[in-house]
Structure formats: structure tokens, C-alpha cells
Amino acid sequence: MKEKIVVVGGYGHVGSGICDRLGKLYPGKVYAAGRSLDKSEAYSLTTQGRVKPMKLDSRALPDENWFREVAVVVMCLDQQDTLFAESCLKNGIHYIDVAASGDWFEKVERLADSAKIGGASAILSVGLAPGLTNLLARTVAEGSRDELSIEIGIMLGLGDSHGKAAIEWTVKGLSEPFEVTERGKKTIKQAFSEGKTAFYGSRLGRHKGYRFPFSDQVALPRSLGASSVSTRLCFDSRMVTALVALFAPLGLRRLLQWSAFRKLFASSLEAIKMGSDVYALSVVSFDGDQVLRRARLSGRNESDITAAAAAATAKLVYEGAAPAGIFHSEELFALQATGRELWLESRPLQSDAAKPGQQPKTKTAPLKPAKARIEAKELFVEIEQALT
Q1: Which of 68, 229, 264, 365 has the most CB atoms around it within 10 Å of its CB?
Q2: Rg of the chain over CA atoms, in angstroms?
């Protein structure tokens, strides 16, 4: 019987947060999986057995019995190929991935036939960015009648305990050009270029951010029909943000193309603790040249909110609110926010719905309408009503 939820990398930085939340909802059915059984067992003990240990190397396929017993996999580790994901989908296992790489998403999106064969879903863009940025973008896009464009700002605290993989991904992103959609056309941008100020609320104020290769810029033009999507990154330290922007075109990007220097730079960032553990999002939609709506979200500990969003997604998928296919979060779910409460809800499928702001063409919805609360530290959300 398929009733297990397996979190791969479940005793890690983000994975343990996912397991903690799901273990309280489904005690005894959640497994913290990874290559080290000792680490998995040690973590399991901290949950009083609500989360069970599991030895699993996703680079090698498990046996047939494993595939018969698992209902949902939440992947918290970077994958080199899609063999494990494809095998899950073909065997009817829903697959949720907290990865942030646009290149990886493109590989998973090619597994649509496997998902249909197994009657399973793969859900991408489920963390903070991409993830909540996508969902907030859909929210503020409602009501667009003209040419829709989205501007996203992301602030990360330098004092936060970011996971090693997250730091390495950020450092790698500094070194590579990337593609965005601008006025309906594909164009190439450099990381930490074209600075622009965003407002993160009265407590955090305005910060200047710079272009960065977050994959929401790839998904949102397709899912929302936006003609332009830009995502910019800043740190809670204005000085550090300015220094990175200064040195990026003066040789930093070139140096970061060397693997050894990237590792050294990432290790330095991991060791140095300055600033706070705050994170914040600013998402603004434009209807033509006019501001349509604004949304802001903030809290503490980026890994915690990533885990919270992924756990809420897993809950909805486990309870049946996902059809077969490959989807980004904004295609299946919507946000409902009231101050410090944030909920993830199922929504009509994009194929059955009109563009944001219009009524669905049919009443067809995901298999089982449901909602799940996204519970995270000191979370605050503000979504403005339409300004036009």
C-alpha cells in the first residue's frame, strides 16, 4: 500500500524542517532518507519516532517493494540526472523537488510522459525563490488586462544559516549569464547588473537589488503569460550588496568561473556571519505602464520558510490535490494570506483556466480541493488590493 512519504536529504538543513512538519501530521509514515543511516537514525530519535530513518542513495534505484510502498517523494538534494525522478513518476509516486535550478527544471519537465504513464505529479518551484515568489506573482497578476509584467525583489540575510548547497548555488549564479523574458523577447543578462530599488516594508525599508538567475523568471512568462519578468537579489547589508555589485564586472564573475575559487568563496561566505537571518520578498505587477498590485513577505530563517512551503505542498499532494503531470507551484496552488497566517490552496488547472484576472473556462479543478497552512518563524505577509 502506498502510504509512505520519503524526504530525500531528510536530516539536512531543509529536509529536517520538512520532516518535522510532516511527521506531526502523519506520524510513522514519514521517512528521513539519505546515504548515512547513522545520521538518519540520530535525527529520527529527535522526533520521538514520528519520523523514521531510511538509508537511500538516489543515485541507485531502490528495489520494487520500495516503489510499491511510497506515495510521495520530496527531493532536497541536487541530482545529476533524472533517472530517480523518472522512476518515481512511472511507478505512480508523486515527486516534489525543492531545487532552484532552471536547467534542472527543464530536465524534469521532459518527464511529462512518464508522469502520465504512472498517474503521478511532479511539483517544481516549491521553496522561497522559486516557490513563494511564483505564488505571489500569480496573486498580484490577478486583474491584468493589458501587457503584464512582474518585478520580484529578494532579500537574504547574511547572518542566516544557509545550507551549503544553497550557498554554492548562489556563488555559481554570480558567474554565469542567464536568459530572461523582456517585452516578450528572450534576452541575456549578467548577474548583479541593472540595479533597481524595491520596498520591503516599513521595518526593512528600501534596498537596491541586482539581477540574479532565479528560475521563477523562466516559469512565470509561461504560466502567467507575462511579457516581462525580472528577479533581483540583495542582502540585508547594503554595503555587501554594493560591494558585490561593484566587483562583479571588475573580475569577480571571471574568477568565479574557476571551480577552486568558487569553493573558496563559498566557504568564506559560510564561515563569515554578519547581518541578520531575515529574508524578504517584494513582488510588484504592472498592467502596461501602471502598477497593478504589490505584495510583500518577510520572516526569519530562509531554510525554515523553504521547508514550510515544501511541507505544505507535500500535504496537499499526499491528500490528493494534484493531477498527473509536471507543474510549477503557481499552476496548481494559490496563496491566501491574512497578516501572519499564510495558506496554500488548490486552484483550477491552468489548462482549464483563463489568464490571471479572468474566470475559468470550466469548473474543472485538481483532484481534491484542499488547503495547508505554511507555518514559519515570524512570518508576515501583506498583499495590496488592485490599484487600478
Answers
A1: 229
A2: 20
CATH superfamily of the domain spanning 4-126+303-373: NAD(P)-binding Rossmann-like Domain (3.40.50.720)
Helix (H) or strand (E) holding 83: helix 83-90
Q: What amino acid is encoded at 259 in this protein? A: S
Q: Could you identify the residue written with the cell 509514515? A: 29
Beta-strand ranges (E) seen in 157-254 are 178-182, 185-189, 196-199, 206-211, 228-235
Q: Identify any residues that bridge with 295 across adjacent strands, giving them in sequence order.
A: 283, 383
Q: Backbone dihedral region of 371: left (phi > 0), alpha (psi from -120 to 50 degrees) or beta?
A: beta
pLDDT values of the chain reduced to their tens digit, one per residue, 388 residues:
899 999 999 999 899 999 999 999 999 999 999 999 999 999 999 999 999 999 999 998 999 999 999 999 999 999 989 999 999 999 999 999 999 888 999 999 999 999 999 999 999 999 999 999 999 999 999 888 889 999 999 999 988 766 566 677 777 888 889 999 999 999 999 999 999 999 999 999 999 999 999 999 999 999 999 999 999 999 998 998 998 888 888 778 888 778 788 777 777 766 666 778 999 999 999 999 899 999 999 999 999 999 999 999 999 999 987 899 999 999 999 999 876 889 999 987 655 444 444 433 333 444 566 899 999 989 999 988 765 5
Domain 132-301 superfamily per CATH: Dihydrodipicolinate Reductase; domain 2 (3.30.360.10)
Spatial separation of the C-alpha atoms in residues 336 and 381, rounded to whole Å: 10
Domain residue ranges in the chain = 4-126+303-373, 132-301
Neighbours of 143 (CB within 10 A): 17
Tell me which residue of 246, 220, 244 sits closest to 234, measured CA to CA.
244
